[in-house]
Amino acid sequence: MTAVPNTATSVPTVPLLINGEWVDSSATEFRNVVNPATQEVLARVPLATASEVAAAVGAAHRAFATWRHTPIGARLRVMLRFQALIREHSKRIAAILTAEQGKTLADAEGDIFRGLEVVEHACSIGTLQQGGFAENVAATVDTYTLQQPIGVCAGITPFNFPAMIPLWMFPMAIVCGNTFVLKPSEQDPLSTMELVKLALEAGVPPGVLNVVHGAKDVVDALCTHPDIKAVSFVGSTAVGTHVYNLANAHGKRVQSMMGAKNHAVVLPDAHKEQTLNALAGAGFGAAGQRCMATSVVVLVGAARDWVPDLVARAKTLKVGAGAEPGTDVGPVVSVAAKERILGLIAAGEREGATLVLDGRGVEVPGYPRGNFIGPTIFTDVKTDMSIYTEEIFGPVLVVIGVDTLDDAIALVNRNPFGNGTGVFTQSGAAARKFQSEIDVGQVGINIPIPVPVPYFSFTGSRGSKLGDLGPYGKQVVQFYTQTKTVTARWFDDATVNDGVNTTISLK
């Protein structure tokens, strides 16, 4: 699969994938994939028609009848081949990802690798999808459970991780015996499509994995189609809430991972150099475009004196195009994203915060049109300011000082989001108190971005998540399967005829 050249514009058009075939969409509306460092148009993305979405779902529905009965061993061998292909092609796909999304090459490779870890875990499906068994729960009666696939599943993925998030979704859904319709971000689908191509090469049959592109109309079609049984979403709070409510109203399982305002609490006994490095990396890496980015630093007691050191550390980071060697902070994804971030920085100044490091107006030689914003730090931030209440999704850190650990815990717990938080300390007692009392789904101790490995599950909470079960890990096997309980009794000629039993007990 490659993007199909469009003779009218000479810009390639990204195809759909329906029933194993690459399809040129008949859409009349398109979006451009733009290199955020240069504004070069890399491709056009069609906003699929209603009939094309229906065809993709129909192909998945038909394929499920066969794929659900494919032996577990055959499914996991597809994943074994898939992970090998991802490893072989990761650097090539990382270059595509950097061109369309903007993150550094090293970060793009990390994006792919964290998704690859999920594919590797999918290879363990033989143990992950086991049911349970109890013999002789009553006389000659056994009870056991089956973990069966649920049907056609859909995934809606964001622009900031065009490799990792799709790999969170469709490999686990497919290896559990389901079929899948994926809608990547229309801003940067090229690297996603390369991974899809590798999945087909690995042996995913026609119709088991399908891809459509689009905006709200396509999202709504997936959320309401009667043949879709489950919807996975990662993205903004506004869209995620809409997806959850609409899909839930139409009887679907939904997991919706949404916005965040992640705090890092720094105690004065923390290892200073390691903590400053962690804060700068977690706050400004990927230009702050991570749902798990550290966006609020809470300095406790004497740690409030560390602000000049944090500013000095941020100033060492190089802003540039993601493909250039030595770049630490690449461009944000679009002109619109840059304008929004600049608007929030201006709002912070108007509302009385102190701008101690201003990343506006940064110039990158050779890239005059890039969407660049340098590391930016605010102090004297109040919790009613827009730079605190809104997810900035850019390279902006806000700093708040408090007197005690109790004050810090109360501050974090008052915030409506619950994706991730971290505490930096050398005190085991303080760390234990923090992990026990903090009301956030994912906690790091001297780790700023506590995204768990795939053997566990992503467990954001409160305003950052809707739905009971998170993506990947043990929880997602529950999400993508239906537990069926079977209670069985077998008779032979020696069985005593006890007559009619009108009670509800088994004896």
Automatic annotation (TrEMBL):
<dbReference type="GO" id="GO:0004491">
    <property type="term" value="F:methylmalonate-semialdehyde dehydrogenase (acylating, NAD) activity"/>
</dbReference>
<dbReference type="GO" id="GO:0006574">
    <property type="term" value="P:L-valine catabolic process"/>
</dbReference>
<dbReference type="InterPro" id="IPR015590">
    <property type="entry name" value="Aldehyde_DH_dom"/>
</dbReference>
<feature type="domain" description="Aldehyde dehydrogenase">
    <location>
        <begin position="22"/>
        <end position="486"/>
    </location>
</feature>
<dbReference type="Pfam" id="PF00171">
    <property type="entry name" value="Aldedh"/>
</dbReference>
<protein>
    <recommendedName>
        <fullName>methylmalonate-semialdehyde dehydrogenase (CoA acylating)</fullName>
        <ecNumber>1.2.1.27</ecNumber>
    </recommendedName>
</protein>
<keyword id="KW-0560">Oxidoreductase</keyword>
<keyword id="KW-0520">NAD</keyword>
<dbReference type="InterPro" id="IPR016163">
    <property type="entry name" value="Ald_DH_C"/>
</dbReference>
<dbReference type="GO" id="GO:0006210">
    <property type="term" value="P:thymine catabolic process"/>
</dbReference>
<dbReference type="InterPro" id="IPR016161">
    <property type="entry name" value="Ald_DH/histidinol_DH"/>
</dbReference>
<comment type="similarity">
    <text>Belongs to the aldehyde dehydrogenase family.</text>
</comment>
<dbReference type="InterPro" id="IPR016160">
    <property type="entry name" value="Ald_DH_CS_CYS"/>
</dbReference>
<dbReference type="InterPro" id="IPR016162">
    <property type="entry name" value="Ald_DH_N"/>
</dbReference>
<dbReference type="InterPro" id="IPR010061">
    <property type="entry name" value="MeMal-semiAld_DH"/>
</dbReference>
